[in-house]
Amino acid sequence: MKKGRKNSITDVAGITVGHQTIKNEEFQTGVTAIFPHQGQLFKEKLAAAVHVANGFGKSVGLLQVEELGMLETPILLTNTFAVGTAMNALFRYSINRNKEIGDSAGTVNPLVFECNDGEINNIRGMAITEKDVEIAMQSAKSDFEEGAVGAGTGMRCYQLKGGIGSASRILTFNGKEYTLGCLVLTNYGQLKDLELAGYPIGVDIAEYYKKSAVKEKGSVITILATDIPLSSRQLKRISKRATVGITKTGAFVGSDSGEITLAFSTHQKVPSSSDAVSSYQILNEEHIDELFRAVTDMVNEAVLHSLIKSRATTTKNGQIVHNLQQCLQELQKITLDKKYQEVLDYLQYY
């Protein structure tokens, strides 16, 4: 399918992404901030939906999105023990820009998502501060780095280095082009399950590097964004297909892994106070299969980006977390097996 100009979630006009990365001898962690549009989100809300494929997670704000179908703050990604800090920072950000919050307009619903980076990062040290969250938000722009940055700094994917990945697709309806984008935070999967280009490549990597199987206890957060006119019900439907994308590389969504997707549309802003009856455009359901296909394809690519663009690192216990491409290159060099070059060529496409 046709990709956006940057092949990124920020191909959807108005979206920006920022990171704050903490990487030193003790910590490997961070924060990633996503701004759905550049206006006042609390006053100009967006249609949104949440899908939880497996609910092992500590995210904040999902319940209200599920009930009301609206998004009214930026979106933050971080590690599990920083959720409270990120939530408070998002509260302060919102009330500093909207004097009516907590007074004449009630409260605000912050959206914070997490994965556990404790295998690599000293998560018990709780390194992230509200200032780090502010830095991530202040650095948001349309061009941003993928891989082991921001919230992805300490994450693993299929026991290899994972992190932040993004992709986009272009769809045409009634002669007009629309954009569908995604961003993933990958911290899930067992190496033995990894399949690429039709090969069970994870088994080979596990055997060569003597990596034993681990219990599936990671998570993956998927953010879907589009400028296509969709209702919250339709956004719910496309968010379910993100799970197909994250499992195309072999994962099975384990019991202790949190697979959570948030989807939103920027097509129409919903004012905080409006007429009793409002009219909005929505996509004809006859065309929604095109979105299902795009979401599956795009999320799969974003997962691959998180693996390809993340550099190898060392855990807090001194163990190496390898980069996928480096593993394949070493196996190809040593064994001369053509399948490893085929997989590398497959990844080159992305």
What is the element string, with H for helices and E for strands?
EEEHEEHEHEEEEHEHHEHEEHH
Number of helices: 9
Name of the CATH first level: Alpha Beta
Shape: globular
How is the CATH topology named?
L-amino peptidase D-ALA esterase/amidase
Tell me how many strands there are. 14
Domains, number: 1
How much of the residues is beta strand, in percent? 25-35%
Task: Tell me the radius of gyration.
Answer: 20 Å
User: What kind of sheet is the major sheet?
Assistant: 6 strands, mixed
Q: Going by CATH, what is the homologous superfamily?
A: L-amino peptidase D-ALA esterase/amidase
Mean pLDDT, rounded to whole units? 95
Measure the end-to-end span.
12 Å
Structural class: alpha+beta
| Helix amount | 25-40%
Widest sheet, order of strands: 4-3-12-11-10-9
Q: In the CATH classification, which architecture applies?
A: 4-Layer Sandwich
The low-confidence parts are none
Describe the structure.
The chain is of the alpha+beta class and 350 residues long. Helix content is 28%, strand content 26%. Helix 2 crosses helix 3 (130-138), helix 5 crosses helix 7 and helix 8 packs antiparallel against helix 9 (338-348). The two termini are 12 Å apart. The mean pLDDT is 95.
Helices, strands, pairings?
Elements: E1 16-23, E2 28-35, E3 44-55, H1 62-68, E4 70-71, E5 75-79, H2 83-97, E6 111-115, H3 130-138, E7 156-157, E8 160-161, E9 164-173, E10 176-187, H4 201-208, E11 219-226, H5 232-240, H6 242-247, E12 258-271, H7 288-308, E13 313-314, E14 320-321, H8 324-335, H9 338-348
Parallel strand pairs: 5-6, 11-12
Antiparallel strand pairs: 1-2, 2-5, 3-4, 3-12, 7-8, 9-10, 10-11, 13-14
Helix pairs in contact: 2-3, 5-7, 8-9
